[in-house]
Amino acid sequence: MPLKLSPTQIAFNARGNGRFNKPFNEQVEFFRQKLNIPTERYDDIRAQAHDRAFMVAGAQKADLLDDLIKIVDKSIAEGKSIGWFRKEFNGIVKQRGWEGWTGSDTKAGRDWRTRIIYRTNIASSYAAGRWQQLNNPALLKTRPYWKYIHNDTVTHPRPLHVSWSGLVLRHDNPFWQTHFPPNGWGCRCRITAVREKEFKGETAPDDGFVSDTDRPQGIDKGWDYAPGRSNAELLNQVIQKQDKAPWQLARSNVQTLIESTVFTRFFKGELQGEFPVAVLSDQHRQLLGTETATVLLSRVSVDEHISKHPEITIKDYKLVQNMIDNGDIYQQGETRLIYLHQQDHWYRLALKRTGDGLKNYFLTLFRNDKAKPPKDAVRIR
User: Fold this and answer.
1) What is the pTM of this model?
2) What residue segments make up the domains of the chain, in order of their start?
């Protein structure tokens, strides 16, 4: 039975030869789940964490990153040209007063830098969308093998990428965990799903590793992962990085995650681990006596919340940051803060830091008939 696809998935076909720059839902959704991360270098964030991080090396201001992510998003979602992107980029750089960035001194340098930003984000989001589509169970039943295809139009082809072209391996072969394209800057290789009859018994090539690293030969630094393969556990690395970011930027990042399908999957129990649900201001962090601003919700806690308070839905969790920012604050002992906040209902939520002050956990959320704090809690605000 053929795989049925909606009109919004027209860039996809099982052979993988749809237009490269034709946006599709999975590609757009992948990019929109990214966080703005201020960074000096692209490799400040490691491997799969790039799935959750939007960065432009040298861009460390929240308003600058916010402007840049918007024009990249529009380039992906609407198929904007690189010419349009360059015009918008130049306007943002001028407006925000961003100076001294790599490539800014000459027209050739500016063209190179904008091309890198434009193509890297389009290629990686396309690949992540393709990873999701290629793993569609209905497709895997009929085309469980993947074929590596080199794009012969590139000006300077990588010899190893050329040698992998035509290689057919099962979709679950470990080779794809590190070699799913793009495999470097400017790489335009792709993967197509094929039927079992195309498999001729090939084995994954052993090309060795780059000296003193575990990175395979032929893969650029930071590209030895499959875009879109990450899960909630990989958020930890990004959160650790953004904990040093300005509060407004970190807060915006977490709210973006809460609004995304990643949190929906976590709430439904499809992802394990811990999830960031809010960010504390310096004042609240000092009240709690913690060294970190991020508030985490554990898998155990969310399951317990759903069990004990079925009236609380995912929509209520999306209000948590607002409750913390605007609610009445109570201190309960040295390690807990209680918040009471009225919206359509009175809500009560509790936070607790760990004994070493290195983590903050979201303990509970439920509705109150009125503003009623615990008896031993002392009002702060």
Assistant:
1) 0.51
2) 7-198, 232-379
